[in-house]
């Protein structure tokens, strides 16, 4: 996503479907250049040549790179032509692979956009899990703790919400509970198997930096109590008391990507 400063690179992700695949690939590539200020602009559900050329022209105007996942061969051909005419860097993510599969199997592809978003049972389970994560985010309704597959607990800014959403896309119903010294944890937290609960902890100095940046983003002074090391130390000590009482797994999320932490959680949940 774009930041307040001028992006170093702008990347258009063009697709005749939702564009999820292309954006994931772009983000994976960008991660190899961290830190980098990249602006990813998704252009989904492009089904006609006029729309296609419009995005190519926008990419040219911003000296952007284009990555496209176009299933329809006619659109792929036009993209190649438009990119050549307008001198835009355009990378075909699917075309060569589809062609190679056709040659290898001696079969024609179905040429239907969006087949990986079929409205099947898995899709509706995922939607249900996402809705669950939204409803039971940050202890808005503690009854969700009893219904959840996974319950995340931790102090503020330990990635509870992003993790909840990521795990929801893996079809797990996740509730998350913020731990603060001023609030007693909900009784429901101690009524479920400890194997369902995952505590999230973090390095004091690392969290201090995260919270200062959060305050700046909100236009507030980074000297507020929320970001002081004394306050953070108190919160983490309290959170450790709660997770010790529960006897649950605790994961240190310092310097860990959401995907990495989620992988550890899933490995633990699936082993119990």
From TrEMBL:
ADP binds at residues 154-161. It comes from the Bacteria. Its EC number is 2.7.11.32, 2.7.4.27. It holds the Pfam family Kinase-PPPase. Signal peptide: none annotated. GO terms for molecular function: kinase activity. The keyword Repeat does not apply. The keyword Nucleotide-binding applies. Keywords: Kinase, Nucleotide-binding, Serine/threonine-protein kinase, Transferase. It catalyses: N(tele)-phospho-L-histidyl/L-threonyl-[pyruvate, phosphate dikinase] + ADP = N(tele)-phospho-L-histidyl/O-phospho-L-threonyl-[pyruvate, phosphate dikinase] + AMP + H(+); N(tele)-phospho-L-histidyl/O-phospho-L-threonyl-[pyruvate, phosphate dikinase] + phosphate + H(+) = N(tele)-phospho-L-histidyl/L-threonyl-[pyruvate, phosphate dikinase] + diphosphate. Belongs to the pyruvate, phosphate/water dikinase regulatory protein family. PDRP subfamily. PANTHER family: PYRUVATE, PHOSPHATE DIKINASE REGULATORY PROTEIN 1, CHLOROPLASTIC. Bifunctional serine/threonine kinase and phosphorylase involved in the regulation of the pyruvate, phosphate dikinase (PPDK) by catalyzing its phosphorylation/dephosphorylation. This is Putative pyruvate, phosphate dikinase regulatory protein. It comes from Paenibacillus lignilyticus.
């Amino acid at each position: 996503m774009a930041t307040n400063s001028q992006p170093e690179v702008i990347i258009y992700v063009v697709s005749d479907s939702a564009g999820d695949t292309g954006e994931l690939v772009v983000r994976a590539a960008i991660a190899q250049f961290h830190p980098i200020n990249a602006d990813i602009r998704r252009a989904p559900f492009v089904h006609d040549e006029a729309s296609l050329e419009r995005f190519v022209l926008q990419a040219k105007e911003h000296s952007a790179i284009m990555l496209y996942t176009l299933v329809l061969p006619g659109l792929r051909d036009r993209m190649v032509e438009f990119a050549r005419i307008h001198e835009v860097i355009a990378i075909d993510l699917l075309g060569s692979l589809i062609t190679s599969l056709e040659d290898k199997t001696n079969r024609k592809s179905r040429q239907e956009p969006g087949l990986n978003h079929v409205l099947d049972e898995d899709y509706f389970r995922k939607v249900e899990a996402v809705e669950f994560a939204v409803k039971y985010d940050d202890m808005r309704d503690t009854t969700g703790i009893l219904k959840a597959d996974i319950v995340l607990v931790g102090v503020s800014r330990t990635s509870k919400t992003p993790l909840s959403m990521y795990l929801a896309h893996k079809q797990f119903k996740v509730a998350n509970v913020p731990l603060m010294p001023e609030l007693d944890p909900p009784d429901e937290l101690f009524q479920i198997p400890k194997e369902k609960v995952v505590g999230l902890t973090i390095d004091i100095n690392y969290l201090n930096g995260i919270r200062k940046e959060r305050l700046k983003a909100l236009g507030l002074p980074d000297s507020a109590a929320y970001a002081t090391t004394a306050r953070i130390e108190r919160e983490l000590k309290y959170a450790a008391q709660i997770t010790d009482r529960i006897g649950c797994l605790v994961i240190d999320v310092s310097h860990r990507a959401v995907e990495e932490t989620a992988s550890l959680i899933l490995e633990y949940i699936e082993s119990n």
